């Protein structure tokens, strides 16, 4: 009898992406195998939806997908459907009432129970709904099937202590819980031993790390400790909060060679009035002060941000303050969102909801300004010689253009001429930038150097294995590294929006 197959469909933020790696690892440890790439919808024996409650119309999208699977499940009695993640944590019993063909509903705190719940549902022939109210096990203690051989997420904390009025995530993920530094570093060292050369430290509010342990400098100490790990070439982190971004973190970034000069610093609004209404615990002056300090310590730093347009009560003057901060900060890119109501958040019931057409017009002005700045900032890269880590799946036109794609140290996307010698994802190619577009750089000349790496070896070993090629998860926010700044006109901020 052949092993049962599974498919995990992931929506939302980096936390969900990382959780899905855990869910895949759990299922494979329990004897399931991943459905081959190209498997028709409904042909996997187990389909898991790892949901997001932040995205607009997240529930409608979920029930639409579940509805399409219902007749397929009727034809295949042994098929099972599980729903987990933030929407499951929020809606609980509602999911089974609206979609009674779902077998398992589990929350953000008990993802480790999925195989047990699937088996229980099969034996009892009844839906299993189990939502834990607090974290049962830190996610990194669970088995993992990582999406990349050369780059990895490493979770350092879960939960969030903030109370932003537009965000429901703290209610679903709980209060911040920090992982012990020794456990984090042990995981990083194990990953490097497997060939991983780039890690991204992950937390809902990553630079608040240490608050659970009473050490305000724990995050900067962690960054410096990562700098001591031999073979670890690149360290990134997401997403920090301006409130907790202290001088010791800036110093650690500047002084630790393998910590990349890349920073994602969510602004949300440039208006002090709107920031107060959002319950963001900083103001415009504080935010711009951080940017100034970062640039003084790391002139080459690429800084990105999140911005919400049309928050309830936002006036034209308030919006102009956001435009002012964008002009002053000169972000490399920005993830811009039109505000839309999120059920369960204080902002959803606030007075002063802005008409859609006003929000749209402001959004278009902001995007146009940021596009202009992104292009100007990228043009400054022309003529620079950069070490690019070759990536997998970053360049959609690579086959047609005979190029490869990868990320510069500051995480800018670079397309470059394919070298004559064999190059693998995870290897490092030195190139000279010859052209800049708003969202990518181009190196049209011959590569100056190619360095084969242990990360490339790891990629080659994984792809030489007889197992099916890993199937990509459906992400609302990207894989390893900062996402491409594609405008999302009706989406809300991702979970990592601090």
TrEMBL record:
CDD domains: Radical_SAM (cd01335). Its EC number is 2.8.4.3. It is an enzyme of class 2 (transferase). Its main location: cytoplasm. Residues 379-447 form the TRAM domain. The keyword tRNA processing applies. [4Fe-4S] cluster 1 binds at residues 13, 52, 86. [4Fe-4S] cluster 2 binds at residues 160, 164, 167. One of its GO terms (cellular component) is cytosol. Residues 4-123 form the MTTase N-terminal domain. It catalyses: N(6)-dimethylallyladenosine(37) in tRNA + (sulfur carrier)-SH + AH2 + 2 S-adenosyl-L-methionine = 2-methylsulfanyl-N(6)-dimethylallyladenosine(37) in tRNA + (sulfur carrier)-H + 5'-deoxyadenosine + L-methionine + A + S-adenosyl-L-homocysteine + 2 H(+). It is found in: Cytoplasm. Belongs to the methylthiotransferase family. MiaB subfamily. Monomer. This is tRNA-2-methylthio-N(6)-dimethylallyladenosine synthase. It comes from Streptomyces luteoverticillatus. The gene is miaB.
């Amino acid at each position: 009898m052949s092993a049962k197959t599974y498919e995990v469909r992931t929506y939302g933020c980096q936390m969900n992406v990382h959780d899905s790696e855990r869910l895949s690892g759990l299922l494979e440890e329990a004897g399931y195998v991943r459905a081959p790439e190209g498997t028709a919808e409904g042909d996997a024996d187990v389909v898991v939806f790892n949901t997001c409650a932040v995205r607009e119309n997240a529930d409608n999208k979920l029930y639409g997908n579940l509805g399409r699977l219902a007749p397929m499940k009727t034809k295949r009695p042994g098929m099972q459907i599980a729903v987990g993640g933030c929407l499951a944590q929020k809606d609980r019993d509602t999911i089974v009432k609206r979609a009674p063909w779902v077998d398992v509903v589990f929350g953000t705190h008990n993802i480790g129970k999925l195989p047990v719940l699937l088996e229980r549902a099969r034996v009892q022939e009844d839906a299993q709904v189990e939502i834990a109210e607090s974290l049962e096990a830190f996610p990194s203690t669970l088995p993992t099937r990582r999406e990349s051989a050369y780059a990895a997420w490493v979770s350092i904390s879960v939960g969030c202590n903030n109370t932003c009025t537009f965000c429901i995530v703290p209610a679903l993920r709980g209060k911040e819980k920090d992982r012990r530094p020794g456990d984090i570093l042990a995981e990083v060292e194990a990953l490097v031993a497997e060939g991983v050369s780039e890690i991204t430290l992950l937390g809902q509010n990553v630079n608040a790390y240490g608050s659970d342990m009473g050490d305000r400098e724990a995050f900067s100490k962690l960054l410096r400790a990562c700098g001591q790990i031999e073979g670890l070439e690149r360290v990134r982190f997401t997403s920090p909060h301006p409130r907790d971004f202290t001088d010791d973190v800036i110093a650690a970034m500047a002084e630790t060679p393998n910590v990349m000069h890349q920073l994602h610093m969510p602004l949300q609004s440039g208006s002090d009035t709107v920031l107060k209404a959002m319950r963001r615990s900083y103001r415009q002056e504080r935010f711009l002060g951080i940017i100034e300090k970062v640039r003084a310590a790391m002139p080459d730093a690429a800084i990105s941000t999140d911005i919400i347009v049309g928050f309830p009560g936002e006036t034209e003057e308030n919006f102009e303050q956001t435009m002012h901060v964008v002009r002053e900060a000169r972000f490399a890119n920005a993830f811009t969102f039109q505000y839309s109501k999120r059920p369960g958040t204080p902002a959803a019931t606030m007075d002063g909801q802005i008409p859609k057409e006003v929000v749209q017009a402001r959004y278009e002005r902001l995007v146009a300004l940021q596009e202009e700045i992104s292009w100007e900032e990228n043009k400054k890269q022309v003529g620079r010689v950069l070490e690019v880590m070759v990536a997998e799946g970053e360049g959609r036109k690579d086959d047609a253009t005979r190029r490869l794609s990868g990320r510069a140290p500051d995480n800018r996307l670079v397309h470059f001429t394919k070298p004559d010698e064999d190059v693998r994802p995870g290897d490092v190619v030195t190139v000279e930038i010859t052209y800049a577009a708003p969202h990518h750089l181009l190196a049209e000349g011959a590569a100056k150097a190619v360095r084969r790496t242990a990360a490339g070896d790891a990629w080659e070993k994984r792809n030489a294995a007889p197992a099916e090629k890993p199937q990509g998860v459906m992400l609302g926010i990207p894989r390893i590294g900062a996402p491409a700044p594609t405008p999302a006109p009706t989406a809300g901020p991702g979970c990592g929006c601090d």
